[in-house]
Amino acid sequence: MPPPKDVVKIAIQMVGAIPQLIELQQTKPLASVLKDVCDAWSLPNAERYALQYADGRQTYITESNRGEIKNGSILRLTTSPDQEAERLYNGIRSNNVDVKTDSLKKLASLSQDVTFAQEFINRNGLKLIFCIVEEGNDTGEMLAHTLKAFMELMEHDFVSWETLSAAFIKKIVSYVNMNAMDASVQQLSLSILENMVPSSRLLFDLVKKEVTVDRLLTHLQVTNTQLQLKAMALLIALLLAATDAERRDMMEYLREKNIRQFIHKNIIHSSEPLGDEMAHYLYVLQSVSLNLHDRRMRTPMDPYSQEQRELLQSLRQAAFESESEAPTSNFSTERRRSLCAKEFRKLGFMNNSNPAEDLRRAPPGLLALDNMLYFSRHTPNAYSRFVLENSSREDKHECPFARSSIQLTLILCEILHIGEPCSETAQAFYPMFFGQDHFFEELFCICIQLVNKTWKEMRATQEDFDKVLQVVREQITRTLSLKPTSLELFKTRVNALNYSEILKLRQTERLHQEETLAVPVLELRERLKPELLELIRQQRLLRLCEGTLFRKISSRRRQDKLWYCRLSPNHKVLHYGDVEEGVQSPPIESLPEKIPVADMKALLIGKECPHTKEKSSGKQNKDVLELAFSIVYDVEEYCLNFVAPTRYEFCLWTDGLNVLLGKEMTSERTQTDLDVLLSMELKLRLLDLENVSIPDTPPPVPKPPSNLNFCYDFSHAEQQAR
Q1: DSSP string of 401-439?
Q2: Which residues form the ELMO domain (predicted)?
Q3: In this predicted model, what pLDDT tens digit does every residue of 553-585 receive, in sequence order?
Q4: How far is CA 73 from CA 51, 69, 582, in A?
Q5: This prediction's pTM
Q6: Dist. CA 46–CA 37, nearest whole Å
Q7: Which residue stretches of 583-696 are H helix?
């Protein structure tokens, strides 16, 4: 008979003693269990002891987490958290430097455990750490252990960041601002400040005032990649916590300091590979920068604004300057108005008598006007050529500059996600963004000339306007997907992808689709599907065996903590555990936690996951919902919660887990992979039928011939043989 579900078989170790194998009754009070264990080893004062996991993070066992103990777990009898907290508290107060250093080192390690952390904080342990930092007598290794312990204790949210004293904060700031300071101390100090910034407006103002942007830029220029990463993290935290006006000022200052060029040269194109964390920060920096256009994008033009009307007039004058040299002072008001209306019509405004009406739609609002003005002022020759070339065409074939600019601005805003909040996990940034100061405007200048080029290639008329812009959108998105490293390279590639190439690509895709719709081909597809689906299943399981690095995400900030999960080679156990930054593929033996596949009950995704329900429903959590999944396991239905680093990893893991559960693979990636494999297999099998039309029905079998009744005379052959 299987054991009752409230009984688990475990081993308990103690240094210098033979391990005990016991059946732990989960209904029995933990104090009674400890007394029985201590009695077996003849240990007095059972209340001074506690149980903790022997492997992994060595978490203390409490009444609240004892339900997580599994059959086969190995526990260790150790000093109770309150006794350990008291011992370390006294050790830190010791005058012996070695004792103090060892105590701080042990504190930094044990503070990851919530039970110990609470005991240490209850003894006013944080005040002790504050004193060490504020006095400033300790440096180097001892100070690093102190700051590490402080970080771990604050992670548990028992104490608010707002309670920190001004003296403590100034000391942390001084470590960041000092030139001759241990790198590990500066890294920890930057992490502490990064945590402080989003906690309150007061702390944000203090950090922003004390740690200048220039100082952060200095840290960004060091060769130590971890220090560089922490400096970037603090810079991003400051940008995200700032008001719109402050953010605009900070970005303008960063532009003056040429931070984009520095990032492009020394971070993106450095000899060191770009880590996931840095990639995320570069994505956020790109997103914050592009979102500075959001206000103009959402602001419609005010036809009664004198300033905005003058900007429109300057756009007209830049295009028709030579024509406007004729003195208009002798013209009547009506004549001048008629002349302006004619020129605005040539510019491509739909409402030429009142062009401001064309810009009343928001988005793109005034951002479209900004782009047109930038194009006219920074590339005046291209602007004049565009307008004059089209104004001399027949009416039905002219490409409307203003109308195209307004629609193109909207397309670029959609492609670049302007106005959307930053994702908490995304890492996709455009390297060429960091190679150019006025990226959005320069991109517009390239793309508006592309519109004119494509318009001519399509021999378009006004009725084809939407078709042309649809082709231009496709040209831009296809080129951006190649991740060009510079705007020049983007310009070369997008111009090479002309209308003929787009037609060829579309035709290839359409022919491929038509080929696959023939009845015999569809039948062949259905026969091939089971074999190819099995191939995809094997690939998914192999990917799970390789494992993936996951990040722990909280609602407060993007965590530095990492954990790794992988499937055993025999596909029977999931192994997982915490890992350090920089570990790519830890061996399966180093992952202490296990979940037998046989114990897995269900897979939850998105809103069904418990860790997405715990998070606030803020606008920044949409991407987490799309990447979240959980495994429900064991009879008690515990959950192991994941947030995948990318949508691709999400698809691979959810597919692989569904295979382990004996269910169908449901991700969009499965269908994509299946289509690719089917396409390749069909092409290989149909190579001999190239340029041969495949009939929908099989050809009729001909009637048997009239002379079918023949036979072979074996006897005649035998006689000849004799």
Answers
A1: HHHHHHHHHHHHHHHTTTTSPPPSS-----GGGGG-TTH
A2: 307-480
A3: 664 544 457 899 999 999 999 999 888 777 778
A4: 12, 7, 29
A5: 0.79
A6: 8
A7: 610-614, 622-627, 647-660, 668-685
